[in-house]
Write a structure and sequence with these properties.
alpha/beta; Rossmann fold; 11-stranded mixed sheet; 3-stranded mixed sheet; 20 helices; globular
Amino acid sequence: MRLPPSIAVLVLIIFGLSACQKTSKTPELPQASSKTLRHIETGDVVGSITSPTGAYQWAAIPYAAPPVGDLRWRAPRPPVSWDGQKQVIDTSVRCIQRARSADIYDDLGALVGSEDCLVLNVWTPAFDPDAIPKANDRLPVMLFIHGGSNVWGYGGQYDGQHLATRHNLIVISINYRLGAFGWFAHPAVRETALSGPDQSPNFANYDMIAALEWVKRNISSFGGDPARVTIFGESAGGHDVASLIALPRAQGLFKGAIIQSGYFTSHALDSAENGVPKDTGWNYKGARAILDALDPPAGLNDLELAAFMRDASAEDIYVASQEDGDTEPGSPLIIADGILLTATSLEAALDNPGFTVVPVITGTNRDETKLFNVTNKLLVKKLFGILPRPRNANTYALQAEYESAMWRARSVDTQARRLNAAGNSALYAYRFDWDEEGSFLGTDFSLLLGAGHAMELPFVFNGFENFPVGGGRIFPKSKAVERDALSQAMMSYWAAFATNGQPGRGMNGNLPQWRFWGDQQARLMMLDTTSGGGVRMSPEEISVDSVLADLGNDPRFKSLKEKCMAFLGVKGWFPEIRAQVAKFAHADCKL
C-alpha cells in the first residue's frame, strides 16, 4: 500500500493543472510584530499577526539542531541558542521532498527543502507579552503531525489560527525528517552509532518526540499548559500518532491523541533493511538497495560506509531512495527495531502496551480511496484529456466503498477492539461522510471525490477559503451554510477532546453526545451535514472478515469481473490481509 500525499495534488490534477509548471518565487513573508515577543530556552523569538483572526503566529522555531553532516541519521540533538531577537515568520520551511503542483512557490517536481528543517509553528490567541496566561489559566495545546506518505508535506501547510482563536487553544504543527532521511535501517549506521537512540532507524519518530519535549519545556512561554497536550495527525501523520501512542519513550508527553485516516502497519527490521517487494506488503526500497544506488567504493568497512553515506549530498540520497522510475521514495513506516519499538509490530505493541494508553479518537472518511481512484485509468477516463469521468459509475462507487470500508475496519474497528481488550475504555471513533461537492462542466465531484481521503482537513482547520485551486467548485457556496455548521461541530469536538479529555457534547455543550466505543448502543460518531443525516451516533461495527463477506455477497456488482476488481483493489491497498482476501474471493478471481 502506498498513500499519495495530499488532496491538494489530486484536486489540481482533476482540473488539468498538474502539467503547468510553477514559476519559482520567494514567498511573501508577514511583518514581524513586537507584540509577539516571547522568551524560550534558546533565546527571544518574534512572530507575526495573522489575518483574518488576529492570532499570533510563530513559524519555523527550531526544536532540535539541524541533522546535517555527522548528525545525519542520528537521533535529534538539542537546538542551538542565539543572541538577540530571532524573527520566526516563514511558514514555508520544509524537509527535503519533491515539489507538488500545490506548491505555488516551486517548480513542479523540483527537489525543495533542506535537511535543516526540524522546526515547528505555533498559533495562539492574541496575548500581549504582559498578558500571557499563567498557572491554572494556561491553555490546552494541540500538536499536529502532517501527512504526505512520510515523504512529502510540512507543518506550515496547515493554518492553526482558526482553531486556536475559536476555542482558546494553542495549536502547533511540526516538521520531521522525511523518507530515507527519517527512516533508514542500514547496519553500518547502527554499528557506528554514538548513543542508544542513534542505533534506532526511526529518526523521524525521535524528531516527533523531540518536538513534544520542546513543547513540555517551552510552551508555557506562549501561555500553554505542558500537562494538557493532545497530538493529532492525518494519513501518514495519523500513522505517526498511532506510533507515538504505542511507544514507551513518548509516554508522559501528551494526554490524548486523534488519528485521522491513519494506519497501524509497521515494518520489520529485515524489511526496512532489505526492502519489501510489490504484492507482499507495503512496497518499500530497503536501506541496502539505497546504499547500492549510491555506488560506494568496494571494500569499505562499516565506519567508512557510514562516513561515505553522511558525506553524500542530500540530492544523491533522495535520488537513491526513489523507487524505479518514480519521482519519490516509497512510504516509510515505523520500524520494529527492538530499541524504540520493542514489540514485533506496532499492533503487537498495542496488544500489551505495559502502560495505560491515553484517550484516543480514531476515524476514517467514508470514501477514503476515491481520492486516489480518480487517477486510476481502469476506473476513470478523461474528457478532452482533462475532465475526469467514471468509466462505470456503479463500479467506481462500489470499488471505493469496499476499499474504504477495509481502511476503516483496519484503522478504527480492529484497533478499537484491540485497545479495549488491553484495558483502554477511553476510545472514541468516527466516520466522516460529507460528500456535497459541486460539479464542473459535467464532472460530478460528489461522485468522484465524495468523502474522500483528506476531505475532513478543511473542516478541522476551517480551511475552505485557502483550499487549493478549484476550492469554489469542490466547496460550492450553495452548500456553505450546512458545510460550515459541520466544520464548527468538528472543531468543537476536537477542541473539547483537547480541553476535557473527551469530545462529549463539544465545547459549548450543544452537540450530540459523542459516546465512547464500548457503549454497545452507540459506538461510532457519524459526521455529516443535516441533509446527509446529521451528526449522530451509530451502533455499526465492522471487521476485516465482515467487509470481505459483504463484498463476496453483494448483488450490486453487475459481473464477476467487477467483483474481482474490487477484491484486487482491497488486496492492493492492504496486502497484509491478502490471505483473508483470497479466502473470500471467488475462485475465478486471479489474485
